[in-house]
Amino acid sequence: MLRIIATSLKTGVITEANPFGAHASFGFPVIDFNRCTACDECARSCPTGAIQVGTAVPGRKTLSLSYAACIQCRECVAGCPEEAVSVANEIEVAAYSRQQLAQAASFDIDATTGRGTFSHVDVEPGFGLSASAARLRARIALIRRRCESGMKWRRRRASRRLSAESRRSRWSA
Predict the structure, then answer these.
(1) What CATH number is associated with residue 54?
(2) CB 42 within 8 A of CB 94
(3) pLDDT digits 0-9 by tens, 134-154
(4) How far apart are CA 9 and CA 107, in angstroms?
(5) Domain that holds residue 89
């Protein structure tokens, strides 16, 4: 290991000219559904299937993006001809359930052109991050109260046992 570092210091070989000056090369994709035409190119370019297109009803498509399956490879950004997919580093990926890590939008498909027009975003029901944290705090408080009441019950039972034993010892003496 030291040999490699010493060699790279002598030769000046580094991976990037200024590794700390550039922006981070990772980030989750963000789909601008208003610009999207549901052409399926981003879904075809996604290696993990994080972006999927479904046709539940004729004349309507659903485009979904799962942050749980995304590896931040940016293939969808390069594959989108409409430039509706961009990258953002400020995506909140903390959720109560895995389903909440997905965004889905419905598109009405024009029969003549085959292009989609954005209809609405499908929202997964459930708790957000702040509600999840509040629920967790409430559960911890409940467990703490149960433990404390259990300790009181054990102390009462132990004191009764001691008082009964002290009464027995008085009678036997």
Answers:
(1) 3.30.70.3270
(2) no
(3) 888 888 888 888 877 776 666
(4) 56
(5) 24-122
